[in-house]
Amino acid sequence: MTRKQALSAAIEALNTAGQHDAAEILHTLSGELPFFSWSEDAIYDAVEQFILDHGRVPTTTDFKKRGLPPHTVIKRRFAITLQEWLEQHYPTEKTPLDELHAKATEDFVKEYLRIQPTSAEDYNARRAHPSRGWFAIAKYNHTRRWRILLEKLDLPVYNNRIAPDSPPQLKVRIISDYNFEDENPSD
C-alpha cells in the first residue's frame, strides 16, 4: 500500500466516523505528496503511485512532472542515471522500431480503407486520431510520395470525379474581325 492509498483509507475512515475536519486536512496533505525530501521509500512510493494512477511505468520525461522526484535526486540518491535506475527497478519490454512501423502501417491501411480518401490532404483531414499522418507512414515505407505509398501498400486509388457517360462534345465558333478586302491589292 502506498502512502497516498493509506491516506485515502484514513480519510474514508475519518469521514465515516464524522471527523470531517481531520479528513479535510489529510485530503490536503495527500494532494501535496510527495513531500520535499526524497527518501528511498518516498521515491519508490511515488513511482508506485504513478503506476497505480496511470497504469504504466513512468518514463524519464514523466519525472519532470509534479509528484515524481527530479532526475538529480535519483542521481544523488542511487549514484546512477534515472534511465539506469528505471531499467534496474522497473524494467519494461521495448517494442522494436520495425514492429512499431509495421503496426502504424497496418493502422494506416485500415484507416485508408475506412475513409476512402481522394488525396493525401483528404486522408490527414479525415483520419481518426491518434492515427499517424500519411507522411509518417510514407517515411516508414521509404518514400515521400502519396501515389508511391499507395502502390507499395497495394491500396486502391479513390477518385471523387464522376466519369462522364459520353465523351464531351466540343463546339467551336470562329469570330473574325479581319477584313479580307484590304488584302486584295489593286493592280
Characterise the protein shown here.
The protein is mainly alpha-helical and 187 residues long. The chain contains nine helices and no strands. The protein has helices at 3-16, 20-32, 40-54, 71-78, 82-89, 97-115, 120-126, 134-140, 146-152. Helix 1 runs antiparallel to helix 2. The protein is elongated, with a radius of gyration of 34 Å.
List keywords for this structure.
9 helices; 187 residues
Write the layout of secondary structure elements.
Elements: H1 3-16, H2 20-32, H3 40-54, H4 71-78, H5 82-89, H6 97-115, H7 120-126, H8 134-140, H9 146-152
**Oligomeric status:** single chain
Instruction: Please give the largest β-sheet.
Output: none
| Low confidence ranges | none
- Rg result: 34 Å
> How many helices does DSSP assign?
9
Average pLDDT value? 85
Along the chain, the helix and strand elements come as: HHHHHHHHH
Estimated helix fraction: 40-55%
Form type: elongated
Specify the structural class. Answer: mainly alpha
The number of E-state strands comes to 0
